[in-house]
Amino acid sequence: MRYAFQVQYIGKNYAGSQLQAGSDLPTIQGELEKALSTLICGETAKDKRPIKTIFSGRTDRGVNSVGQVVHFECDEPIVASKFIYSLNEILPDDISVSDLKEVSSSFHAQKSAKRRHYVYEFVNRKCKNAFDGDLLRIKYDINIERMQKALDYIKGEHDFSSFKSSGTLNPSKVCFIYEAKCRKVGDKVIIDIIGNRFLYNMVRAIVGTLLYIEGHNMPPEHMKNVLDAKDRRKAGQNVSPYGLTLVEVTY
Question: What is the pTM assigned to this prediction?
Fold first, then answer.
């Protein structure tokens, strides 16, 4: 039987969501599979086999999630409420799961996903605040209207080669962005980007380009120039991962 659930995590203490071959660094997948194997097979079971998980997508070191979707296989029926409670008791405090349900054998957390919604938050204030945490702080004034005009250029289907890092595994660089918008709430700037797929570090590179445009008082149209160039050297630097959160995956 195949089951799927949502996973929430704070990514600061992990080397990303995915297991890394030949590395002992902690990952979300590693902790989740260890907890699932313990709960399903038991700590001392002689025939214990690892429970393998499939994530809706990879998140990098430091990136958070409130809506990551994961599926796994289990031979025995699962009582959702009891299972979720027990699993959360085993998992580290900065990882939790919710909304467990049985899915069809054709469901695939990654391949069946239609849209992924990311949010990036940063602080726009000259002076620091003790409650800013690890969020990026931009000291110069941000013009939300100008930033929105720049974001409008990435909507639709484009080759996003200018915004990918070298670790992208999928050779396809074309993505479709359904929504890209920004808003300011108090001292926080919040950027929402919804797409069918994302390249490695793509959101962080887009935000870095937005900040480069704002910081150098460039016209919003510069975003289109960067997009059309299909050249990573034309875009801004990747911003800190700590303000990035995977909010929702839809199927």
Answer: 0.93
